[in-house]
Design a protein that fits this description.
Layout lengths: L7 E10 L3 E7 L12 E4 L2 E9 L2 E7 H6 L10 E5 L19 E10 L4 E6 L13 E4 L2 E8 L3 E6 L1 H6 L10 E6 L1 H20 L1
């Protein structure tokens, strides 16, 4: 489990395209400290498994399903990525519960700068809109953010200078894709309420 608090802005140093997968080598001096084979590291919000680790770089394999459902397929050598290690039991939950399982992708629609923050508008797939509410949580490229405004096909977030300086959202432009993970609690609530309604319908 992750919390959506990005630890560092890493970089893709190599990309190897396989028949039905892709192998990435990524540089991240912070997240590779103590890393070993089999560990998990979130890359732009996608939970990946460390295959190899040497120095401040690690290698991860990404299967076709993940490439199709996320924006990782658009990465190239030199791409910057958000990196986060799983949270340890007993640590503070700085953001919100993040699984590293991308629900879909959105696109940067626009950016409105201000003196102390910046509003970013992001497109929202129709099937995810019911999980996104004003002042709720959403994960964008692995970053835990609070929704400012929620529309049927878009939402906005307000970014502080730290987020702009230390994550990919500081450099992404309109048209760039982003990974989205909605709040898992909302999905659990929907499922439980759905089962309850279905059950009540049967008994009646």
């Amino acid at each position: 489990m992750f919390t959506g608090i990005v630890e560092e802005l890493g970089e893709v140093t190599a990309v190897e395209t396989l028949d039905d997968a892709c192998r990435f080598r990524l540089r991240g001096p912070v997240v590779t400290q103590g890393a070993k084979h089999g560990d998990s590291i979130a890359v732009n919000g996608v939970c990946l498994t460390v295959v190899d680790h040497e120095g401040d770089e690690f290698t991860a394999d990404v299967m076709a399903e993940t490439l199709n459902r996320s924006s990782l397929g658009a990465l190239a050598v030199g791409s910057r990525v958000n990196l986060e290690r799983p949270t340890a039991v007993g640590d503070r939950l700085g953001g919100h519960i993040v699984q590293g399982h991308v629900d879909g992708t959105g696109e940067i629609l626009g950016r409105t700068p201000s003196e102390h923050w910046e509003i970013v508008k992001i497109s929202l797939p129709a099937e995810l809109s019911r999980y996104v509410v004003e002042k709720g949580s959403i994960t964008v490229d692995g970053i835990s953010l609070t929704v400012v405004d929620a529309g049927r096909d878009h939402f906005t977030v307000s970014l502080i200078p730290t987020t702009l300086a230390l994550t990919t959202l500081g450099i992404k432009k309109p048209g760039d894709p982003v990974n989205l993970e909605v709040d898992v609690i909302a999905k659990y609530v929907e499922r439980m309420l759905g089962d309850r309604v279905a059950g009540e319908g049967v008994t009646r």
